[in-house]
Each structure stands twice: as structure tokens, then as C-alpha cells.
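>> received
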Amino acid sequence: TVDAIRAQRDRLLVELPAQGYVPHDSWANFVLFGGVDDPAATFRYLLEHDILIRDVGLAGHLRVTAGTETETSEFLEVLGRMPR
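>> returned
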């Protein structure tokens, strides 16, 4: 399980930049990423699609926890569809 979560965390570190976001290196089970124009709106958009992430109060940043491969794929897909 730890290896699977680590793989999804590393996947987020690779795929978020492809969508124009700036992830910070992480050794934890989550990724803090910047480049978010409106964190509150992004949080709401994802929540409307049943995806819960964390707004940690840093300007232009949000935090996503690495989950299963399916959860990560859904997060990236929905985030990629969000109008920017």
C-alpha cells in the first residue's frame, strides 16, 4: 500500500506540471501545488465533482492527498476540465 501511494504521489508530481501547475517536492502522502489562480473556486469545483482536497490558506496553492490510481486519475481528469 505504501508503494502504491508513493507511486501516485510521484505521478502527481509529474502530471500536475503538464496542466500548468507547480507541485512542490514531497516525501509525504500529499502534494502541495501552486499556480492556482483562484484556490477557493478550484476547491469548490472539485468538491462539486466529489473530489475533496485541502485549501491550506497559502495564496495560489492547494494540497491533494495521493490516493488510489483511480482516485488520482479522476482528480487529474476533473482538474484538467476545469475552466481556467
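>> The mean pLDDT is 96.
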